[in-house]
Specification:
The chain is mainly α. The chain has a single domain, classed as Sodium:dicarboxylate symporter (Proton glutamate symport protein, Orthogonal Bundle). Helix content is 74%, strand content 0%. It has 18 helices and no strands. Helix 3 packs antiparallel against helix 10, helix 10 packs antiparallel against helix 15 and helix 14 runs antiparallel to helix 18. The longest helix is centred in the first third of the chain and has 37 residues. The chain starts with 8 loop residues before the first helix and ends in an 11-residue tail after the last helix. It is a multi-pass membrane protein. It comes from Thorsellia anophelis DSM 18579. One of its GO terms (molecular function) is symporter activity. This is Proton glutamate symport protein.
Length: 415
Amino acid sequence: MKKTKGTSLAWQIFYGLILGIIVGWIFYVNPTLQLVLEPIGDIFLRLIKMIVIPIVITSIVVAIASSGDVKQLGKLGGKTLLYFEIITTLAIIVGIVSANLFKPGAGVDFSSLTQGDISKYVHTANSQKDMSLIDTIVHIVPTNPFAAIANGDMLAIIFFSVIFGLGLSAVGESAKPVTKMLKGAADTMFHITHQIMRFAPIGVFALIGITVAKYGIASLIPLGKLILVIYVTMFFFVIVILGAVAKIFGYSIFSLISLIKDEIILAFSTASSETVLPRLIEKVESIGVPKHISSFVIPTGYSFNLDGSTLYQAIAAIFIAQMYNIDFPIAEQISLVLILMVTSKGIAGVPGVSIVVLVTTLGIKGLPVQGLAYIVGIDRILDMGRTAVNVIGNGLAAVIIAKWQGEFAPKKVDQ
């Protein structure tokens, strides 16, 4: 259905974003405003999170049960993980080059900075540090799928859903009632998603209002260069790097951005990629990505294809070295790429994952972890940008994998 420009969801969310900034600025450091707005923002995020896991499970199970080709599924998984590793590595390299070129940490005045509390991130990193890559892979297989669902362990949920879908496909005729029931459940969840999204502008207004009221605009000025460098680099990565990848596969990054503009604005405003997962799956399917690809690639990408996050981590690590005037030669930066390639996947799904990854990475490289205390206060602003990039990257991944598999069937869609 074609919408008028003035009433589209993207514009409604944008209006909520601007109004939230204005109200938050007017009521800066006002506990009453936070008391009013925080429950509204939390309820909206909880509504979205409530339906994400049911949608992932039902969509994957139905898609796999319908296709049922184990060999093709193996090829799909292999190509997906290979693509994710290549793109996230490029993101890390782009981040390192940008940090060396623009030097956002050079000449930073410590006296103008405010230290935040990073103890919870250090605690999480310490609890994860003994977990090797092999342990992470083993952890993907759940001993109890219901526990995985309760804990929101996305990789374990995806694994169980794939196995369950393959089981339904193998059983055949007698399993069709189960598949039909799950398809009905998936359709219901998507319908609920559309109803919840009616409240997105209000949710965005509340979340942005809280952020601005809590931190203010002035708090961004001392680290303005870091913010600018990160956002410019993210813009470059999306338009140039992802744009080139899209062109290689016969697609336009601008077509994708136009298609998912509502989801980009929502992800940016809420700093949560979960808020757009169901609609992102629907959007890429509407242009010709098969359901079994979209429902597998996008949820998996939420753990393995965090382009914006890995780019940010690379810049932030070098920023801290520059801020403390620590010599960080090219050889060390190359090893940083290798470390981030592992640590950015090894603790995927952990809350505050970017800061946790940085705590782990800085510790390995012998850089001062306490430097993160100076940037954690603006992390929400940075998180908004990297979340939007993550969403674009995963939307493109679904299209690329579909084309690589030779299963992309272009459809015309009204935007």
